[in-house]
Amino acid sequence: MSQMTRHPFVFLGLLIVLAVTALVAFRLNTITTVEEQEPPRIVVGTVSPLKEDLDIHLTYTGDISPNQIVNLFSRVDGYITKLHVDKGDFVTRNQVLVEIDHTDYQHAVNQAKANLAAGHARVSQQNAALRNTKLTLDRMQALIEDQFVSQQEFDNAQVNFDATAAGLASLQAQVKQMEVALAQAETNLAYCYIRAPFAGYIAERNLDTGAYVTGATASTSTMSRGILSLHDISTVRVLIEVVEKDIPLVKIGQKAVLRAEAYPEQLFEGTVTRIVQALNRTTRTMTVEIDLPNPDRRLKGGMFARVDVMVGTHPHAVQIPIDAISRLEDAQYVFVVREGQARRVSVETGSRSHNYVEITDGLTGDEEVIVSGKDLVHDGIPVQTQSLHPVKGEA
Fold this sequence. Notes:
Layout: H1 3-6, H2 8-36, E1 42-47, E2 50-72, E3 78-83, E4 90-91, E5 96-100, H3 103-145, H4 151-191, E6 193-195, E7 200-205, E8 212-213, H5 215-220, E9 228-243, E10 255-260, E11 263-279, E12 285-293, E13 304-321, E14 326-328, E15 331-338, E16 341-346, E17 348-353, E18 356-361, E19 369-372, E20 383-387
Parallel strand pairs: 1-20
Antiparallel strand pairs: 1-19, 2-9, 2-13, 3-5, 3-8, 4-7, 5-6, 7-9, 9-12, 10-11, 10-13, 11-12, 13-18, 14-15, 15-16, 17-18
Helix pairs in contact: 3-4
């Protein structure tokens, strides 16, 4: 009888041991082969930095305001007899907007004219009396030299002349007062017709025909709501609050570009015209005023606007897509490709222009900067590059 027949389990065990040994040897050989193979490289998209002049802009938001706003009050007391305009109407300079009941003021003018005419008549009468006393005085002067009249008679003639002259001066002064009174009465009558101080649009109408108005309101409260509110929008203004660090960059005469939400596809050009030379203690910002011509009056008071102010140019600035920047807490860095490997480089950024950002420190402009796949790499990992061609100004 053979050994296999007599010890079948022993033989089976030997076969199992041989099979396991062969399998382990095969696995070890496979692992060794895999380890000897080069690991696959990550494919990344790269760009070369731009090196060109960079216009520096400051971007702020603000509200559009009319060039001039005035609340129109009455300077005389009375009832509104007629409103010639309403909200939304365009008016020209000196156009009559409101009429106040002028009956009493017309009577006052007529009375002042009558008083003045009477005063002129009294002056004419006194002039005649003065001429008469002057002739009497001249005769007395000739007669006293020949001693035909006494000194007393001459003195009386002199006194009469002086008194008549003084009376004339008094009447002339009264005429002056009457002329002033007439001018005041005519002015009050003119105030019954409220006119537009400049061309613009009626933005508010707060009173109706028949309402009583008083001149005291205009003199005691400049913040009160008037009869009408008139806005001049042939030129508009935008007030922006410039942060403290940007104050040295802003100067009168710099150009600005405005974008209004009502006209997203249109740019409006303006100029920095006024700078408030003081900071708000609460916000630590300084107010800067920008004027924009608005001949077609498309921009309205109260519109929201975004303003870019051109404050300078950085020549030959190194710029990369903003998507290439990574941040970790306060640090900023990019990955560049050197000798087939990704290398982390710390950078400092400057001004932004569309989808590009200026690099002020860390890059020379000759590197390959990783944009696509930057989140898949780490310092020193081998990479395979693929050039990208992003266009500045596109998102």
